[in-house]
## 1
Amino acid sequence: MAPTQPQPPPPQTNNTLDRVHAARISKTWPLLSHGGPLVTRNSRPKGMDNPGVLCYRRAVLQCLLHVPELYRYLLSARRCRCREKGCVACALRRLAEVYWSVRETEEVQGVVEGVDGALRSFVGHKDFGQYDFLRNGVQADAMEFLEGLVNMIRAREVEVSGRGRSISRLFNVTTRRTWTCEDCGRTSALRAKDLAIRVALPKELEGQPFDSYLRACFQDEDLPDLRCESDACVVDHPEGRNRTRRTRIVHGPELLIIQLLRFDFDLKVMNLVKNPYRVPFRERLDLSEWTVDNTALKYQLHGVVAHRGASTSSGHYLAALQCQKGSDVATANDMSIGISSDREWLLEPRRGDGDEFDSYLLVYQKVGGVMRVVD
Ligand SMILES: [Zn+2]
Ligand SMILES: [Zn+2]
């Protein structure tokens, strides 16, 4: 009888997400955060009261609260502690504390109102005229709300520390656009920052995998009007030439927003018209192909803001959320919370009664990175 061969050890990997998928560690919310486990006393989502048409704010706040790195950012020691009524950063920190504490859902309502109040007074005092819609109770676009919120937190961070680098590292997608002049060989590079990767939804991509949408976002552009940065070259070659410009990611944020550009202005009806087809985004997102030098850049989905209705400034918004218990997803529809183990709820948000919504903002957290608080 032949002796029993020793079994080879299972393949080892250091990547947290790989280990999660190999089911060797549990898929819990804190483990997907960098810098060690993040333990909160409550782990269940809580509803948020909507006094009228503020569902767009509630859906965005729910998604943000479900990203561990944002929680870590808000609670880190160097953040604002002024506790003034008009401080958006303190109001959001207070919301995160109460939301993930054992306090009752009713207590969340007061602090959510505190966020509304802080936005109202901040817009009034700090020259944020473009976000005037935050001063009153009108319905607005969820992405515009998110932009306003981040810009106000950044303004406060700058006031407190003289810099706004932490919030920028948390949210900004930094890209580098390069092109080379065929006449003189000079390469020009331009850095750009944005709060989101904005993904167009042309009809011809309907039914294609999500990678096709990203490829379209990062495809080389032929730009006839791009002129060489060398004055001498422009004099020598007065005729314009087509230039090919390439865009690649230089810095991937800890918290990545993908905005699905569902709304196009239709000249026939003189209004925004929504493109409602389903976009097949996934829970895991690999952007490595679109970074400079193909640096690894991977993300995990934590929330989706979804919308039902004809225009972003009407209809209804809700949020689909990754729960702290890794196998569960939740739908947060104002005060009502539905929890399910059906992962499709995250990829195709619905109200819980089968009523479907169109995904609009996808909120991802970086996998395997390290968030450094730099100021
Ligand atoms: Zn403050
Ligand atoms: Zn040139």
## 2
Amino acid sequence: MTVVNGSKAGAATGGQGKTDANRAKVLKDLTRKLYSEAPEEDDERARAHGARADYLRRFAAKVRGELVLPSRPKLVFRQGVVDFLCAEEADDLKAIYLLPWEVHFGAEDCNENSLFEWIGWVRDTPNARVLLVGDSMECMTKDSVGAIFSQRYSPQHQMELLATTLEPIAPKLYGLSDGNHERRITKTTSLNPGYWVANALGVPYFHGSQGVLNIHLGKGRNGKPVSYIIHFGHGTSSSRTAGGRLTAAGKMKDIVLGADCYIAGHTHGHSIDKGCRLVVDPQNSKVREEKYMTVLAGSFLEYAGYAREAGMAPLGSGCPRIRLDGKRKDIHGSL
Ligand SMILES: [Fe+2]
């Protein structure tokens, strides 16, 4: 058809006797031509997203039902000034491994294969537990920072697919909270993406991007379970140095006193620091030493675009592993 070219269409429709019907036909042909010649990238992108979603669902279906969990922890969750979770683990557990995760699911640089490997490890390790400390999803919006079109999935699909991906290990999740990325959605819609995912998985949702855990496990010398207090928060810090990131995380000690372990997200620092404090024990008229640990969660981001553009060094993907002993009070961390 010659009329699909703009100038020729104009010529064809610009003469005497032009009718509305002719104009409609020109537009119809033009529309048909444009659609038929539209680049297939959009279709391929949609197909790629659909294939990736199918892959994630197949992955979840494959590992579902194979979870190694001899005894489920009994969870008691209470909302308050800071949400509180009491986890009573089995008294025959020698230790548990607690993994703080920041997934950034849906981000262009999210290493999904690494996430799948960790999920497989959690699935196969009876005493592995996971805590999602915010930024579980990328959650870019048109009004937020970041290149919105670089996301692998829309925020709605990020929520659906993350819930699908984590569902096989849901009984091993202590819960999740939102980070600054989820708050991008909250800011413009009032909706909490983490709340939606937590409800889909049936796990606790910690409001206010922080929470306190009291984990009981094993049996100490006195015959009672060993107890650990853990305070986690997504936190904020833009420090470029390991020391600065740990200093920012160290301020958590001013929020919740006496925790055995403080876990901070946001910086992707992937670091562990051991500290010691003196505690006055008036009942026994003495001052005693207490150890505590500060942990910077890592993330599943590879060398992220924002870090490259800001000239920041890559911090590596993955997560620290925190070991809580079930025979005596002892915390170890490995990276
Ligand atoms: Fe993050």
